[in-house]
Design goal:
- This protein has 220 residues and is α/β, with parallel strands linked by helices.
- Helix content is 33%, strand content 23%.
- The protein is built from eight helices and eight strands.
- It has helices at residues 2-13, 23-27, 32-37, 53-61, 74-86, 135-144, 158-167, 198-205; strands at residues 17-18, 43-47, 66-71, 92-96, 111-117, 145-155, 174-180, 211-217.
- α1 crosses α5.
- It is globular, with a radius of gyration of 17 Å.
Amino acid sequence: MRKKLERFSDNAERRNVIEKGKPVFEVIKGNWKKELFGNDNDLVVEFGCGRGEYTVGLAEKFPDKNFIGVDIKGARIWVGSTYAINNQLDNVAFLRVNIVQLEDYFAKDEVSEVWVTFPDPRPKDRDEKRRLTSPRYLEMYKGILKKDGWLKFKTDNTPLFDYTLSLFEDQVKIKNLQYTYDLYNSEFMDEHYGVKTKYEKLFHDQGESIKYMKFQFEKS
C-alpha cells in the first residue's frame, strides 16, 4: 500500500499524467495538442494501457506522433510515466479515467489511431457490454476517430477475437478490415514494431498465437 501511495503522489506532480484534480484535466477534451503536446502531430490513443509498454514503445518508434495511454489504475500508469520521463519521451501522456468516460476527454474526430491491446476478454455473457470491443465501445472509438482513422486490436484470446469479427456482420459498419490469427507468422508482422506488452510476452511464451486486426469505421 505504501508503494502505491508513493506512486499516486508522484503522479500528482507529473505533467505527463492527466488525472482528476489537475487544472488541465477539466479542459483537455479537444485540446490535447494545444494544452499538452504543443504541436499539431497526430494523436494515437491506447485504451486499457496498463503499465504503458505499448504506448511508450510506439512513442519511441514514432517521435513525430503523440501517444496517450488510458487506464484507471494509477499505480500501473506510473510505470509508463516513469519510463517516458527517464527516456525524455515528450510525445507521451497518460490519462487516468475509466474508459467508459472516454468521450468526456476526447473530442469528435480528435484522434488519428486507436489501439486496444490485450483487454480482459470478459467471457461471461452478462459482461459483454464491458468488453473493450463491444458495440458500445466501438461506437465511442468511432466518434473520436478522424474519418479514415484506424482501430488496431491485439489479443491472445480467440473467443474475444471471433466475437469482435462477428460484430461486423450486421452490428458495426466498418471498411478495410484486415486480420490474422497468427501475427508473428503473417504479412502484418512489420506492424508489430517489435513492441510487446507484459501479457503479450506471457501468452506468447505459453504457446498462444497473437491475433491482430485493423479496420476503419464507415463514417458519413
